[in-house]
Amino acid sequence: MNNLKFVNIEQLLEKIGHIEFSPLTIFKASSITLCGVGLVYLSRIWFSYRFFKKRGLKSPKHEFFYGNFRQIHKNKNYSEMLREWTKEFGKTYGYFEGHLPVIVTSDLEFIQEVFIKQSTNFSARKKGFLSRKDDDPNSDLFQSTKGRWKRMRMIMNPTFSSAKLRELGPILVNCADRLIDVLNKEGDAEINVSEYFKRFTMDSIWNCAFGVDINMQYDKENLYLKNCEQFFKVTSNLMLPHYLGLYFHEFKEKIVFFLIIMTLVRSKFVDLDKLSPYFWLKTKIKDLVNKRLFEKESRKRDYIQLLLEACGELNSERFSKNTEFKKSLSAIEVENNLILFMLAGFDTTSTTLGLSCYVLSINSDEQLRLYDEISAVFGTDINSINYDSVQQFKYLDWFIKEVLRHYPVGNSIVARRCTKKTTIKGIDIPVDTPIAVDVMSIHFDADLWGPQDPNEFYPPRHEVKRNPLAFMAFGNGPRNCIGMKFALIELKIALVKLIMNFEFLSLKSDINDLELEEGVVRYIKNGSKVFIKKRFFP
Ligand code: HEM
Ligand SMILES: *[C@@H]1O[C@H](CO)[C@@H](O)[C@H](O)[C@H]1NC(C)=O
Ligand SMILES: *[C@@H]1O[C@H](CO)[C@@H](O)[C@H](O)[C@H]1NC(C)=O
Ligand SMILES: *[C@@H]1O[C@H](CO)[C@@H](O)[C@H](O)[C@H]1NC(C)=O
Ligand SMILES: *[C@@H]1O[C@H](CO)[C@@H](O)[C@H](O)[C@H]1NC(C)=O
């Protein structure tokens, strides 16, 4: 039997040997192969487009190859688009990113299953346009999946406890004082507050995460600031590789692999630090972490230190099968997660602050109410504010939540990816299917947020206990925003200082006048322009 096969192959080789490999033959053969592969791929695309029909789900009309992505991308209003579709197709439907089917839902029962009850079956995020392999050892908390995510999250959760955040309080107060100082120099004027808030959140992050105190708020040309801003521009613009990853989603990981190889090759010829702000940042952070590793018992209480010292208090039995399980983060994991904190905490928080000021400027009643609440406690002496004292302001808490209900900024990341085939409400979900939440439909649902009209800006609605899934600004379930408490404290400290020092005025009068644009996060088009007027104390 074996012999026979052998002979056959030999004969075959002989035959092949007789074929003449003229350029024309090679050309013909390769075009036929290419056509074949192309046809297989085309039929695959064609087959993908039957995903929703097979499951009895509705979906908006799509273009072949592009799916619905051009509709979403052209207008840069993903959140509004989903909401519009929900009105047309109901609470659960689907759309196509290229030929990748994405299930969209604003059905709280569905979300309860995906985000909470079956969270272990959905233990990955929806992939970006480019993504690394699942369980790549270089992935950070945001990108990682399954056991790797679980381990990191358990180690990192305690670093965001109230006790740890209290220690960061004075740093945040200090940064807020600088913000006030800088704004004071502008005097009474109409200014683009977004610019100042960006520098404030960046200053806060460099101080809290890296223990680096540089002149970021005063010096507009600061090198750290410049490089970080550049980095954000690069990460938020879609470029050719992103489009390739988007429309040929089966090859996302291969494209990333190729990009990494290209970078390695380029690093032989050019100094990468100078080439890309990402490498500049990465080198900087690596140095900071390394320095700290050799420094015994640093007194600094920043996130480098917290993460290096963090040690999961886990039931190791559950993980004993996994030999790679470690209770603490490696130096590389600390570096990657620090970069993540900067990415995740910078645009989101500064935009929320910009939105808050915009709302204050067109809403003098809210401003007065907050001013009264704060001055009733502090009088006019706000030098004594700290982590604990800003937490007592109930109305301020409602106000921030109402800003984030009305203008949720992180909608596109409130999504999961199926990691174990399962069924949700009778719909079978194959592995790798992304489930995206239509946050806007939930936040403006009168049944969830009534009786006051959800289109109205009305902070007291947060006094009533609501369904916990009705507020999605920080996501939900075990994989919600890990920085939520940090962000809320930062926002509260900044807003208390701002409200006590300035009055915000506007020429506009309607809350719906604001134009938002959306990439990974939503931001205010052209920034938030308000007139600031110094308050004078008698
Ligand atoms: C107003 C400010 C912020 C908003 C609106 C916001 C929003 C969000 C949202 C919607 C998610 C996805 C949650 C989900 O999928 O269920 C998220 C995840 C995350 N956020 Fe935030 N965020 C903010 C500030 C921050 C800050 C300051 C940090 C860092 C210190 C941070 C770090 C993270 C991380 C690490 C994740 C991923 C968690 C995981 O996958 O386990 N965020 N954020
Ligand atoms: C999205 O934005 C475009 C242009 O900016 C606008 O014409 C369209 O109506 C918007 N779509 C929704 C659903 O708001
Ligand atoms: C206001 O500041 C933001 C943030 O730096 C910027 O993106 C925007 O272009 C600025 N707007 C104007 C009108 O300069
Ligand atoms: C995950 O999905 C499986 C079906 O594949 C199901 O039996 C199991 O109950 C789900 N897990 C949870 C926690 O619901
Ligand atoms: C934003 O700026 C552009 C050009 O600077 C202008 O055409 C547009 O009207 C502005 N939009 C808003 C909402 O101010």
Automatic annotation (TrEMBL):
GO molecular function: heme binding; iron ion binding; oxidoreductase activity, acting on paired donors, with incorporation or reduction of molecular oxygen; steroid hydroxylase activity
Keywords associated with the record: Heme, Iron, Membrane, Metal-binding, Monooxygenase, Oxidoreductase, Transmembrane, Transmembrane helix
InterPro entries: Cyt_P450, Cyt_P450_CS, Cyt_P450_E_grp-I, Cyt_P450_sf, Cytochrome_P450_3A
Cofactor annotation: heme
Pfam families cross-referenced by the UniProt entry: p450
Entry's transmembrane regions: 26-47
Presence of keyword Cell membrane: no
Matches recorded under PROSITE patterns: CYTOCHROME_P450
Amino acids binding heme: C481
Superkingdom in the source lineage: Eukaryota
Protein purpose: Cytochromes P450 are a group of heme-thiolate monooxygenases. They oxidize a variety of structurally unrelated compounds, including steroids, fatty acids, and xenobiotics.
Protein family (similarity comment): Belongs to the cytochrome P450 family.
PANTHER family: CYTOCHROME P450 FAMILY 3, FATTY-ACID PEROXYGENASE
Protein name per UniProt: Cytochrome p450 09957
Source organism per UniProt: Brachionus plicatilis
